[in-house]
Amino acid sequence: MTDELKVVLIGPTNVGKSTLFNRLSRTRRAIVCDRPGVTVDRHEWLVEDSPIGRFRLIDTGGVGPEALRHPLGAEIQRSAAIAVKDADLILFVVDGTRELALEELEIADWLRKNTHISNARVWIIVNKADTKRYESSSYYGLGFEHLFEVSAEHDVGFGNLWDKMRLVLGEGKTLEPTELAEKKKNPRILILGRPNVGKSTLINSILGQDRHVVSNIAGTTRDPIESVYSHDGFEWSFFDTAGVRQPGRIEREVEWVAKEKLKEEAREADVAIVLFDASEGVSALDASIGGLAMDFGLSLVLVFNKWDLMKGNDADDQLAKLERSTDLKLEFLKWSPKVRISALTGKNVQQVIKTISRVLEARKHRVSTGALNRLFETRFKEHPHPAVSGKHPKFYYLSQVSVSPPEFVFFTNVSSKDIHFSFKRFIINTLRSEFGFEGTPIKIHFKTSNK
Asked: Which of 269, 275, 311 lies closest to 290, judged by CA?
């Protein structure tokens, strides 16, 4: 058995697998909705602190005959099959509000064909068992030895489940405190963009595997799905996210929850890859997504995907449209690096990795006190400043107070509202020209001080 135990949740649609995932992982990372087909991609989470130690928990989309009616049913089931093949334990989740039916029997047969497993590796989890509408014993008809009645929503029945997992799996590999700290330092990169611009395809291309379900159906990805990219001794955490739709539209429950989870991830992230469909040009919504990432203080890499479609008789017109819309709508992000790629063919995808690496370094850059003082004396201290509200600002000194993103404080004799916006822009542009800060927003604050 490997150091990292893998526990996989499998079952029909709408039986509460995502609620169970949140309960076992002690998070709220999986979107929960009383509607079938919400989970599409495999959703993984490394549980660091549990009664069985450290293990990787994997949620999957619904499988079985009913699930195959979903437009992406075959892809979802293929993704689930990849998960169960490497599992140490499979929790087969069923609905405790009804008895055993043909659907569960067919899923049990599918499991045996895809895993070649013994009964000991598959346990039946009868969820929603607190309703007590039916006897759960009918599920022994699936032919698996272990059955547990739980309510994931109300946290009922988990003591017996954890005890059995501890007995069978033993204590997982527990991280030392230093290892835990290092694990949490992984840079976090969000993939943002409109629906159907190729976010999942880009992730798969970066990872070199079919980790995410890809479809031309907009809205395939809902949960922010984490994938760890390892290369040359470093690790990054990439997050595929739900496509951002036009603000102000009436959002269904699933889309609203996905948007809120995206905001939660953005608060913890470092870099945003804003993905555009090069064949369509830059839209107002694309610009809005870039602005959202900047507002969260994320560093940005602007990636123009589907470059392989820019060919034929219309190629020149498409390119001209792209350049015009980029200059017009992304002027406020001109400090962000741009990369042209085809995620489908893999062209220039490695250039994205190299650009992210540079941007991460720029994000952590701290200017030396001497260099900052020299810049202040030569460029800022005596720079003409228009009077605002009849006050003439004087500037005393400048200090960098933090990194990720870089943040500076100007000490002056006036309040922030008395500083003209053009001077703020001049400060940021000068800092960029002197110290780089490629792809990284710069925060400027003004603090009133006596000299």
From this structure: 275
Residue 182: which residues within 8 A CB-CB, separation 6 or more?
A: none
* CATH of the domain spanning 369-448: 3.30.300.20
Q: How many Å apart are CA 272 and CA 294, to the nearest integer?
A: 9
The answer to whether the beta carbons of residues 150 and 161 sit under 8 Å apart is yes
Q: What tokens were used for 171? A: 């204590």
Q: Tell me the longest C-alpha to C-alpha distance in the chain.
A: 84
Strand 43-47 with 55-59, pairing: antiparallel
Which of 451, 370, 396, 386 shows the shortest CA–CA distance to 421?
Answer: 386
Residues 6+ apart with CB under 8 A from 399: 372, 408, 409, 411
Instruction: Spell out, as residue ranges, where the chain has pLDDT lower than 70.
Output: 1-3, 29-41, 67-74, 115-120, 132-134, 170-185, 209-224, 243, 245-262, 312-313, 386-390, 450-451
The Cα 177–Cα 443 span in angstroms is 33
pTM to 2 decimal places: 0.63
Candidates 1.20.1730.10, 3.40.50.300, 3.40.1390.20, 2.40.50.840; CATH matching 186-363 = 3.40.50.300
Q: How far apart are CA 255 and CA 75, in angstroms?
A: 21
Classify the C-alpha dihedral 82-85-88-90 as positive or negative. Answer: positive
- CATH class, 5-178 region: alpha beta
Distance CA 149, CA 151 (A): 7
DSSP symbol at 365: -
